Amino acid sequence: MKIVLAVLYATLALAACTPTTRTVGYGSGLEPIPGSITYGGQPRTKLTKAPVGSIVPHHFFDRYGYRVYETYIIEPDRSLRLTSRRIDYDVFDH
């Protein structure tokens, strides 16, 4: 009986372990959130020196204090396309 309880507790402990980040990936129709580079429209300045297809990383804290990592790609018209977002929910990091 003790072994069954030990296995049950171990299973519950492992089930309680959840990742502290959430990644929203490619092609999912990401919308900018407050703090995103493209929130409220494209930036006023054009990225003229960066090659088309370049990756632009960006990180910021959202309104809840979680760290947000975003990745953009420079399009042929020099606009930025949001391709991925990762939110770090680990409260011990900040």
From TrEMBL:
It comes from Sinorhizobium alkalisoli. Residues 1-15 form the signal peptide. This is Transmembrane protein. The keyword Signal applies. It comes from the Bacteria. Keywords: Signal.
